[in-house]
Task: inverse folding
């Protein structure tokens, strides 16, 4: 199945969209959160994501922080014959672990993390009539344990508009590991 670059780019943008009053990791530590993550699973009500989810593979996300505390995100997404890179800057908000991109009307919250193995990120994009919501399961290694996937699945009904049939458990991909540096 051949997928066009614009379609995958739109699907990724839907994934990168972020919530209302969503909990944030207590005592969030940006220094511990920085580094490389893999998107092991995602769930979103974005129509583009829903059309593309079965063709997607795990992407690599590099998180860094500016001196002002803003979150810089670089995503490398495997595509049919190349790796697509996207970059996004989110401004620090309150409480710690909450970030916004006002120009894109995006809200990103680190909902839960142990810093060394996994993170669950909630994103909401407020455009048009209906906001699109997403949860992403990030892991330091590409594999997510069955217990971690179960924990992630249990959070899906807690986000308005998300259901388990919108879930994509993304297969591992080594296609873009060199492109992340």
Result:
């Amino acid at each position: 199945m051949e997928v066009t670059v614009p379609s995958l780019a739109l699907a990724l943008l839907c994934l990168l969209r972020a919530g209302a009053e969503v909990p944030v990791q207590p005592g969030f530590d940006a220094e511990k959160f920085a580094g490389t993550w893999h998107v092991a699973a995602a769930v979103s009500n974005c129509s583009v994501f829903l059309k593309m989810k079965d063709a997607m593979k795990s992407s690599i996300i590099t998180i860094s922080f500016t001196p002002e505390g803003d979150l810089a995100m670089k995503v490398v997404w495997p595509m049919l014959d190349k790796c697509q890179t996207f970059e996004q800057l989110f401004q620090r908000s309150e409480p710690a672990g909450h970030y916004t991109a006002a120009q894109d009307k995006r809200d990103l919250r680190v909902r839960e993390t142990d810093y060394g193995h996994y993170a669950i990120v909630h994103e909401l994009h407020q455009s048009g009539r209906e906001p699109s919501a997403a949860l992403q399961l990030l892991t330091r290694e590409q594999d997510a344990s069955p217990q971690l996937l179960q924990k992630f699945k249990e959070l899906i009904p807690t986000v308005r508009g998300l259901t388990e049939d919108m879930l994509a458990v993304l297969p591992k991909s080594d296609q873009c590991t060199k492109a992340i540096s």
About this structure: The chain is about 15% helix and 35% strand. Confidence is low (pLDDT under 50) at residues 1-13, 15-20. The domain at 18-168 is CATH 2.40.128.20 (Lipocalin).
